[in-house]
Amino acid sequence: MSAPPKRPLLSLAHELRAGSLDLEEYLAELEVLFSILEPSIHSFVEEENRFERLRQEAQKLKKKYPHPPNRPPLFGLPVGIKDIFQVDGFPTRAGSRLPPEELQGREASSVSLLKQAGALVMGKTVTTEFAYFAPGPTRNPRNLDYTPGGSSSGSAAAVAAGLSPLATGTQTIGSITRPASFCGIVGYKPSYDRIDRTGVIPLSPSLDHVGIFSNDVAGAELVAGLLCPHWQLAVAYNSPVIGIPNGSYLKYASDEALDNFEAVCRRLSEGGCTLKQVSAIQNFEAIVERHNLILAAEAAQVHSRWFKKFGDLYHEKTAALIEKGREISKSDLDEALTERRQFVQELLRLMDEYSLDLWISPAAPGTAPKGLDSTGDPIMNLPWTHSGIPTINIPSGVNDKGLPMGLQVAGRWYEDETLFAWSTHLEPMIRTDY
């Protein structure tokens, strides 16, 4: 199965807002596509009368905003919400077997902002259990025999299949960038805490990021500007100086991924970008160990009450993480968090020393693995999540089986606007489907 042609999110948002595309006609089109593709992909949590609800909400929205000039920027745009986000009127199960009433809470601030901007909640998207590694039923729209990645499995698959032009996700290791790469779409992980995490069931509060999926960089930027406080548009005046981390980190990418990465580097260089090899992310194995220590320790804290009460309902992978975290001392966690802050400063120091605007790297070790038992390895995303600096996955090609690969573009701390400006400039050079 290959992904159907899709309207770029930015164009779709403009058409719906202007009324050149009637909202109810668009939902009818989407309903047909949903009935054809969703039974095979399983990107959404099941919901009875989904499109009847959406039509009623669309009618209310049109009645509230009859005049296009007064319509909000995301008027009528459907959005898939990862099922660890609280949404009024929807149960939250977090991909788990725990009773939904135990997990309910106040609506996520990011969801409320999307609604205020006119978006319609398409429904809850499938997540791995508590956004860790225990996979759900979702399949990759590019090839149903392959994983879409995780933990934001349903969100990435829904956008890739054209079932929802926008979806939310979270990333604690690689849960936005990796599935975006596997599914051939854009995934934006902001600077740490740039998008409010309130109302999202945490996994590791020090590492969790809230982000989004789109099929184009410009569309993701439109939404980022609504979700990130104090957003200021930036402009890329010249070609950027780009750093390539030269060390043990890149050895975790497969030969196929490195071949694709080198081809992208050539296109960027030919397009006028300055690429610099930089000795960075040294002692990578120690960084991985530190990240996983923080993750386990904080997951044990988050799930302490639930695990005590419902431990037998947890998947063995999640249970093992929590059990591991219980053995970690507070002093070891505090030391790891301190070392993490030092790592962030080292990355930023290198950007200043080499006058870098961006870092680039493969978005995953390779293409999506076959089968649904695993969501793939997030190792290529870990240092950028650990540091909390913003990243955007841009599709960078497909292999001979038609499986996508992506380029992970990282910017400066809390300069997400500039990252988008550069990414918009680079997207035509990176994508082979342009």
Alpha-carbon Rg, integer: 20 Å
CATH class (first level) name of the largest domain: Alpha Beta
Report how far apart the termini are. 21 Å
Q: Per the principal axes of the C-alpha atoms, what is the gross shape?
A: globular
Question: What is the helical fraction, as a range of percent?
Answer: 40-55%
The strand order across the widest sheet is 2-1-3-5-4-9-10-8-6-7
Briefly note the CATH topology name of the largest domain. Answer: Amidase signature (AS) enzymes
Number of domains: 2
What structural class is derived from the secondary structure elements?
alpha/beta
Strand content: 5-15%
SSE order, one letter for each helix or strand: HHHEHHEHEHEEHEHEHHHHEHEEH
Q: Compute the average pLDDT.
A: 97
CATH architecture type of the largest domain: Alpha-Beta Complex
Strand runs, count: 10
The CATH homologous superfamily of the largest domain:
Amidase signature (AS) domain
Main beta sheet? 10 strands, mixed
Low-confidence stretches: none
Question: How many helices in DSSP terms?
Answer: 15
In short:
The chain is α/β, with parallel strands linked by helices. It has 15 helices and ten strands. Helix 1 packs across helix 8 (217-227).
SSE blueprint and pairings:
Layout: H1 9-18, H2 23-41, H3 50-64, E1 78-82, H4 100-103, H5 109-116, E2 120-125, H6 153-161, E3 166-171, H7 177-183, E4 186-189, E5 209-214, H8 217-227, E6 241-245, H9 255-270, E7 274-278, H10 284-302, H11 304-310, H12 316-326, H13 330-353, E8 358-362, H14 382-387, E9 391-398, E10 404-410, H15 416-430
Parallel strand pairs: 1-2, 1-3, 6-7, 6-8
Antiparallel strand pairs: 3-5, 4-5, 4-9, 8-10, 9-10
Helix pairs in contact: 1-8, 2-3, 8-15, 10-11, 10-12, 10-13
